Amino acid sequence: MRRLQAIVLLSVVGTFAFASVASSDEKPTPKWQGKVDYWQPQWMQRQLWGPGRMPKGMQVRLLRHWTYVNYGVPPAYQNARSDIERTSTTVLQGGQLYAKHCASCHGANGLGNGEAGKSLLPSPALLSYMINRPISADEYLLWAISDGGAQFQTSMPAFKDQLERAEIWKIIAYMRAGFAKQQNK
Predict the structure, then answer these.
(1) Average confidence (pLDDT) over 4-32
(2) Do 148 and 134 touch, CB atoms closer than 8 A?
(3) What is the C-alpha to C-alpha distance for residues 82 and 84, in angstroms, rounded to an integer?
(4) Helices (H), 32-185
(5) pTM listed for this prediction
(6) Residue 105 has pLDDT above 80, yes or no
(7) For residues 35, 61, 182 and 166, what is the CA-based torsion angle, rounded to 10 degrees?
(8) 81-83-87-93 Cα dihedral, nearest 10 degrees
(9) What is d(CA 11, CA 164) in angstroms, rounded to the nearest whole number?
(10) Dihedral (C-alpha) 166, 168, 170, 174: value to the nearest 10 degrees?
(11) How confident is the model at residue 183 (pLDDT cuts 50, 70, 90)?
């Protein structure tokens, strides 16, 4: 009888040992897999934020986007579309305006790495990445540049009193052209 119990016990233990060895051949699934935030650049992919896990700076940064998606833009910018041609001259002029008014915070290539922007929280928007996203409609960009970020508690200045609307459209054309290198004339 003891011999039969020992055989049964060994077979049960052997079955569990084999099952654990067989399952250990499989690679463990990373905790973040399937939870990647594709709105961030690939080098910034991380686990999606759950309730209470989004940093305050990110909440502030996303507030304009959330407002646009849920409520649209203020009436002054509704259905606004650029009326300037995207020529090399226009892009060059937009690049000069961008260098003068935007690059100190957003960086020369729109990566949010300008000297003045390094101390800001939230950090300046990653324009070179954002410009290719569906949210970057003309009316949204015009609103963001014209009104700035005061209502969203960011340091983005309002440019509607400093730049004409045509100049803002030139900056947008420059960004849409991929932050082309400026040519000195």
Answers:
(1) 52
(2) no
(3) 6
(4) 56-71, 88-101, 103-106, 127-130, 138-147, 165-176
(5) 0.69
(6) yes
(7) 130
(8) -90
(9) 83
(10) -170
(11) very low
